[in-house]
Backbone:
């Protein structure tokens, strides 16, 4: 008997998952609300619409997103295959003709007789039936309400207010020091102190820095619960010193005193590689974040692994709800793919769709699901989904900091990334062979 899977959402993740299942002989019921209903960002009736930029970022395999794309090529990703086919000149980046991109993916999927497209808005679904939910950051309100009741109110978020993440290597320890407030903890925070003069320079630049214009549907009201650092700063010169830059309880070993103001960095994963700027959710342009946040003395050479962003984004608290296979722990026949699962970005969403399809196939055949390990970029993203701190969960884009380290400290960044990339691609080859993927 032909096995059947329901996929909800024919975006980047849903289209990739659909192809992977069709070619494995499944009957796929693909539920897509377009063209009957469009989100505020979607305009094109076809599948796999790129809602904003036409770039899928770098193709260089020593960059995080380039590596992820190469892994996807090895796994026979339809979406990346079409992107390569319809690429337009963009230096080392993979940019595409967006119309051709969506059209060719739609045509290819519709050429399979075992595809059943259902153009309707899904408002709820049977949690016992094999299903991949891939409705993205702008999941329709009715389905979001259903998911809220299924996953619990506290575990579904509707907006993103992300603080930047910096690498450990870029922190200047001539200025920074490790300490927990009032020594309550196990040395979990890195502190970036500022004296009065340094604080005033930073403050004056922060309040006049340029922000990103929010779209109409990204109504500022949604963000009230999580105020951007630059908005808080505008409430008065000391607002930050009584908020996220509060220095009390943090004795600087160099002066024996509390600093005038102090930025705290919190570990983002168990690795010593990535640190979140606590309370620094921001809507500044990336260029301004780079300029203004480097005025904090300990961050003068900062390497930003991720900049802060704010936009409407529906996503689940993945470490609470999913396992590393993107499978819902409480409902094993349901998988969540794409941006809704807590990954961030076009290519990451495609990767999520591909991984869900491979694993739902294994699951339905009573086989072990595939662990891509955190040596590959796709596996490192799954590891993040499973192991990130659920209390502060924020979506994650591919970056070199989430990969399992090279086992030694390599100072030269180029050399380190080349080594991480080689390890990842070799590991991917091994995993594909061992698990007979393709
Ligand atoms: C405004 C905006 C701009 C972005 N720009 C970029 C960018 O430039 N670069 C980048 O890397 N990432 C960007 N992202 C983030 C993200 O990578 C993309 O949103 C990406 O398309 C996510 O892929 P997805 O498959 O998870 O969701 P989508 O590609 O959005 O696909 C979801 C699909 O589900 C459908 N759907 C929703 N609800 C229902 C329902 N109830 N029933 C049936 N169908 C439904 C939608 O119509 C849509 O086709 C942006 C996000 C937003 C919101």
Residues:
């Amino acid at each position: 008997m032909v096995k059947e899977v329901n996929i909800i959402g024919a975006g980047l993740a849903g289209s990739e998952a659909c192809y992977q299942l069709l070619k494995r002989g499944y009957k796929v019921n693909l539920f897509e609300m377009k063209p009957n209903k469009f989100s505020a960002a979607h305009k094109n009736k076809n599948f796999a619409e790129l809602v904003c930029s036409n770039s899928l970022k770098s193709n260089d395999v020593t960059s995080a997103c380039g590596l992820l794309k190469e892994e996807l090529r090895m796994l026979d990703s339809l979406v990346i295959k079409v992107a390569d086919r319809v690429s337009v000149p963009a230096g080392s980046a993979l940019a595409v003709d967006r119309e051709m991109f969506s059209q060719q993916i739609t045509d290819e999927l519709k050429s399979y007789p075992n595809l059943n497209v259902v153009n309707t808005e899904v408002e709820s679904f049977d949690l016992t039936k094999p299903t991949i939910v891939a409705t993205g950051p702008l999941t329709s309100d009715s389905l979001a309400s259903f998911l809220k009741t299924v996953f619990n109110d506290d575990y579904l978020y509707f907006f993103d207010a992300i603080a930047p993440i910096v690498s450990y290597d870029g922190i200047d320890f001539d200025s920074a020091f490790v300490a927990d407030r009032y020594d309550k903890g196990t040395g979990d925070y890195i502190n970036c102190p500022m004296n009065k003069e340094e604080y005033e320079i930073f403050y004056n630049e922060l309040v006049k820095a340029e922000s990103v214009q929010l779209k109409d549907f990204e109504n500022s009201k949604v963000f009230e619960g999580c105020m951007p650092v630059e908005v808080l700063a505008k409430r008065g010169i000391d607002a930050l010193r009584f908020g996220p830059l509060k220095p009390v309880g943090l004795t600087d070993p160099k002066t024996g005193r509390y600093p005038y103001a102090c930025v705290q960095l919190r570990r983002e994963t168990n690795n010593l590689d990535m640190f979140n700027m606590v309370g620094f959710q921001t809507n500044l342009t990336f260029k301004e974040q780079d300029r203004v946040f480097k005025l904090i003395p300990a961050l003068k050479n900062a390497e930003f692994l991720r900049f802060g962003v704010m936009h409407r984004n529906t996503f689940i608290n993945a470490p609470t709800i999913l396992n590393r296979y993107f499978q819902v722990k409480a409902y094993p026949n349901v998988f969540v793919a794409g941006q809704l699962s807590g990954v961030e970005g076009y290519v990451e969403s495609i990767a999520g769709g591909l991984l869900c399809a491979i694993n739902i196939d294994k699951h339905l055949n009573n086989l072990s699901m595939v662990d891509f390990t955190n040596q590959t970029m796709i596996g490192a993203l799954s590891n993040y989904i499973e192991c990130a701190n659920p209390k502060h969960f924020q979506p994650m884009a591919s970056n070199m900091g989430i990969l399992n380290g090279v086992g030694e400290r390599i100072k030269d960044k180029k050399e380190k990334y080349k080594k991480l990339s080689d390890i990842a691609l070799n590991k991917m080859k091994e995993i594909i062979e061992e698990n007979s993927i393709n």
Q: What stands out?
A: Residues 220-224 have pLDDT under 50 and may be disordered. The domain at 4-160+311-434 is CATH 3.50.50.60 (FAD/NAD(P)-binding domain). Residues 413-434 form the longest helix (22 residues).
